[in-house]
Amino acid sequence: MGHREQARDRQRMAVIGSVAAVVIGATGFGVYALVGDDEAGRGGVGTTTADGKQPETVETGPPTAEEVRTVAGDFLDAWAAGKERQAAALTDDQTTALKALTAFREDAAIDEIAFTPQKPKQREVAFAAETKIVHEETTADWSYDGAVSVVRDKKTGDALVHWEPSVLHPELKDGQSIETGEAGTPPIKAVDRNGTELTKDDHPALGGILADLRKRYGDKAGGEPGIETRILDAKGEETGTTLLTLSEGEEGTLRTTIDLGVQQAAESAIAGKNKAAVVAVKPSTGEILAVAHTPAPGFNIAFQGLYAPGSTMKVVTAAMLMDKGLASPNAAHPCPKEFEYGDWPFHNDDHFEIKGGTFAQSFARSCNTAFISQAPELQNDSLTNYARDVFGLGLTWQVGTSTMDGRVPVQSAAQMGASLIGQGGVRMNPLNMASVSATVKTGVFKQPYIVSPQIDGRTLTGAPQTMKPETASGLRQMMNLTAVSGTAAAPMAGMSGDFGAKTGSAEVMGQKKPDAWFTAYSGDIAAAAVVPAVGHGGEYAGPVVRKVLDAYGG
């Protein structure tokens, strides 16, 4: 038996006598219980080779199979025994390895660790790790698979474990670490307005919102955080990767404004569509009753999308024109086939015109030129200011989750004209346009929200101004006309009570078909939907909104 094998055997006998039982298999690797580094008082990391001798000649070439097996085995044995310094000395980056191995044991709360290695494959030895984690009074077993690779040190010729973060765990990357502790904010049990639980499994479109609600309200909902072993980034922040859940924690209940029946209707209305989104709000309060989008899970275009709203924006423009005295529902209003503004010829769909018609008739048929013809009477920032100050578009909303709150930039010339009909640089999402219909219904902007501000004391955003009462009344008259005999008549057919709607078909450069839009209200519910790149709003987005409106019981 050689000197190196004798040294290893003596080390193992010492561990058998003072640490824990050793199981020696055919490979010669030991399995130990971790108790800490018994060499902690010896100063710095040594620089000798694995067998304690300086090589007489420098070996070259890749490590032999025996070297791979032996070095990997010695490394795993030392790691399992809690001898981080000894293990680090067998790597090609001793300082980094020592720091990482020590931090892994301490920060991840590893009480015991044992390895079952596989036969070497070229320069790599895969292993199964079995650990026992003890965090305060919580204990759990954790198993995972890993691997180490062995390389030849060019200066000394020694075979050494190549150190990289994945030695500790295969999912670990540079700068990251593993920690066991409280899992950030406590979990929540989100419920709808009537107390029915909402889960991402039942409602995939709500998955991202529910996760965000936990971050925002987990510590306010009365729950207790669980204990997790997870990966942190270089700043000590969570990466979202949980390796082990030791305890789930206690959920706190968070009541949302969602109405389960309306939510289910919204999800059903867009099921099977490649991309679509719909939102419903309660005009009298601003409470969000439903939000759905496809694909789900995926980016929430219902709350955060940026789409030209097309002719649904004419609701805002019409209010502005009436407030400024430039239009009135029953007054004569021009709707020519074309109107040039900013050196750009604007026209209506199929170049129709309304001779001797009223503003209400132009609104109901979605006449573009009826709106653009008023551009010479406006300032470049007129629509921007009005949309913000009356409809709250472009302000910062405090919804309770992440939202994009409308964008109406100041534009000039042809772009300003285009913005009046929801083109140019105007960008909205269904949340914004549902709020527009809700504002028409009540005459006052009430910022939408999904969690009551009473929970966290936040202040909801208010609009600096309200539209004139006669303007609000005129808008409701025109939206009702549109729903009864205009472009929105087909999807709104058979509806009774107080209702109104507006269609939109937004042209997008490079897109063969326009984005379909529809916004409407009925009683105390308002909704809006977008179905990108399909065609006319009344045909494709209208049925989505109608299904949602019909689901609300008040």
Task: Explain what you see.
The longest helix is centred in the last third of the chain and has 17 residues. α6 packs antiparallel against α17 and α8 packs antiparallel against α14. The protein starts with a helix and ends with a helix. The chain is an alpha+beta fold. It has a five-stranded antiparallel sheet with strand order 11-10-16-15-14, with helices on both faces. Strands 1-2-3-4 form a four-stranded antiparallel sheet. Strands 5-7-8 form a three-stranded antiparallel sheet. The protein has 17 helices and 16 strands.
Number of strands: 16
Strand content: 15-25%
Low-confidence stretches: 1-47
Radius of gyration: 34 Å
**Coarse morphology:** elongated
Helix-strand layout with pairing:
Layout: H1 3-18, H2 65-80, H3 84-88, H4 94-107, E1 110-117, E2 124-135, E3 138-152, E4 159-161, E5 177-182, E6 188-191, H5 207-217, E7 227-232, E8 238-247, E9 252-255, H6 260-270, E10 276-281, E11 288-294, H7 301-304, H8 314-323, E12 338-341, E13 344-347, H9 359-365, H10 368-372, H11 382-391, H12 413-419, H13 430-442, H14 469-485, H15 489-492, E14 499-506, E15 515-522, E16 525-531, H16 537-540, H17 542-551
Parallel strand pairs: 6-9
Antiparallel strand pairs: 1-2, 2-3, 3-4, 5-7, 7-8, 10-11, 10-16, 12-13, 14-15, 15-16
